[in-house]
Amino acid sequence: MRAQLQALEKPLRLSLPTQEPHFFDNDEEFALGASHYAKWFDWNCEMIGDVTPSYMYLPKALLRLRQYLPQAKLIVLLRNPIGRAVSHHNHDLSKCRKVGSLEERWTREMLQAAAEPSRSDAFRRGFYSEQLERILQHYPKEQVLVLISERCRQDPLQHLKLVANFLGLQEVPWLSPHIFAEQHVRKWYWEEPSHHLREKLQHFYGREVQRLRGLLGDALPEWDNDFRLPSVVPQHPWLRTVQPRADEAPLRDRRWSKRSETLRGQQRKKISKRLQ
Predict the structure, then answer these.
(1) How far apart are CA 65 and CA 12, in angstroms?
(2) What is the CATH number of the domain that holds 54?
(3) What's the whole-model pTM score?
(4) Is pLDDT at 263 greater than 70 in this prediction?
């Protein structure tokens, strides 16, 4: 998604940095002030955009972001947490970082579970629901767009249109097919999780994924291979994923249950307090 938006910078009059600035989550960068941050962008544009995903994970980053840019619109791209962790690990390996094997890293992170969140965390970053809740403590839900990574890959053009509409930018023009070639996804990995580790991760994220399904009101069928769909998915979530219309990109049917009435009531009370 980032590569496609960067390819559309000129027609959409959007300015994006070519790499992650890490201004709001790096103390040294943040200490340099707003004038330093401004150097990342071409200001002959209608809108600027940061591309640093760790802002969502690190609490101090959101506090700073809210302080500097309370009007910002946030786009959250969620991927199967197992795939995200494995990709994160292999990115570090490609940079020759000394992170050990996947098993070693998993063990190390579990032993440090009580530690402060860090950009180096590969596994704990997959707990998306608490991160989304934290976002909504600082930004109204109207300023938050949640997309599912696997769907963006299946239909990138329609999701680009969703993003442009959310940002209030002009219509996405016709694009050459080569624009949609994956540029930030590896074709192969240095290390894949063993069957035993994958089972551990399925258990580790299992309840979190079920909770996320409820919060988003989205069955997340793309993740079914790792996380079986529950029999109950709340019908009135407080934050929804956004998807192309049915006539643009048909979606699989969702499976709901009326037995979720009690859970929905509890969630409504909780979220109404958060958003007051």
Answers:
(1) 24
(2) 3.40.50.300
(3) 0.80
(4) no
Other beta carbons within 10 angstroms of residue 215's beta carbon come to 23
The two three-digit tokens of residue 274, written as one number = 């958060």
Residue 120 contacts residue 49 (beta carbons within 8 Å)? no
DSSP class of residue 241 equals B
Q: Dig out the tokens for 22 from the structure.
A: 């890490």
pLDDT value, residue 235:
53
What's the pLDDT band for 276 if we cut at 50, 70, 90? Answer: very low
Measuring CA to CA, which residue among 252, 78, 249 is closest to residue 155? 249
Q: Quote the CA–CA distance of 128 and 213 in Å, as a whole number.
A: 11
* Whether 74 contacts 44, CB under 8 Å: no
Q: Is residue 18 classed as helix, strand or coil in its secondary structure? A: coil
Domain of 19, in residue numbers: 2-275
Q: How many domains does the chain fold into?
A: 1
